[in-house]
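Support reply, case 0932

Customer input (verbatim):
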Amino acid sequence: MSHHRPIRPADRHAFDAIVDARSPAEFAEDHIPGAINCPVLDDEERAIVGTLYVQQGAFEARRVGGAMVAANLARHLRERFADKPQGWRPLVYCWRGGMRSGSMVQWLRLVGWDAQQLAGGYKAFRRHVMDQIEALMPQADLRVLVGATGSAKTRVLQQLSQQGAQVLDLEHCARHKGSLLGALPGVAQPSQKNFETQIAAVLETLDLSRPLYVEGESARIGRLSVPVPLVQRLRAAACVEIEATPGERLSYLLRDYAYLGDDPEALARRLGALTELHGKETVQRWQAWARTGQLAPLFEELMRLHYDPHYGRSHARNFTRWDTRQRISAPDLSPEGIAGAARAVLALG
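Our regenerated output:
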């Protein structure tokens, strides 16, 4: 068995398992990728102990909380850890690397497992995430995919990944397509912290000598903010523009956003946010199309009147290398055509 020593977030990959001893609510907000949640106090118990600490003091909180911790640890030993071999090496963490993870580590080591505690807990991991983004983004050889709405940039990005390229799919991390209508049905966006954790997890795996492909996003994706070092690197990176005809883009949008027709009233409500930009008469026409399931004329006008007029100006303003962008023609946005566009992007080097 190894000695107790400070374990840093960067050392976590050396362990057989990562155990998050925090409450389910804390775990749900964000956690170390791959961690399993084995709380020593659940959400209700944590609230009880916190109240006791405030109202009656530390001793009473520890007395009551200690019984809860013991019961939970016993349950984990009977259930979650019952099949672990003698040589199992878990890394355990809580919020600050304090009593919750410390008590679990003590019991696991008494059993005979070489359990270790993450120094500084989740707070140290959180600092590690932000440090990784700040340190690695300036070193990444970014290639930014841009293109008018409906040019299948996200699908091209996914194809690049399948063809062996390094990819950072921000919309996948954000669970959002990035536009006014980009919310995914029945899918909640992650917390800001988890969004950043996902980004850092990708960056940690990079070969910095190879290009990293990413879609040209705004500073926000839905309600989430893209980390500032990433926004700055995006704005200064080389651009590759996917060019498709309006007709092909419309056909693609009708396939890719077909689910918007499943809830016409929700779609009409979202379109209401455009009233100030386009006027009541235009938006009411769009809402009528939404309510009657007429997505083709709706999407055609949204492209022509809302998205396309601002496309070139906004990209010229936001991407410093816009004028020297490379262009890829994508006359066909079928799956085969998108795969061909990805091959053409890779051929650019």
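We compared this against your earlier run and they match. Two observations from our side: The longest strand covers residues 141-146. The chain is about 50% helix and 10% strand. Please reopen the case if you see a mismatch on your end.
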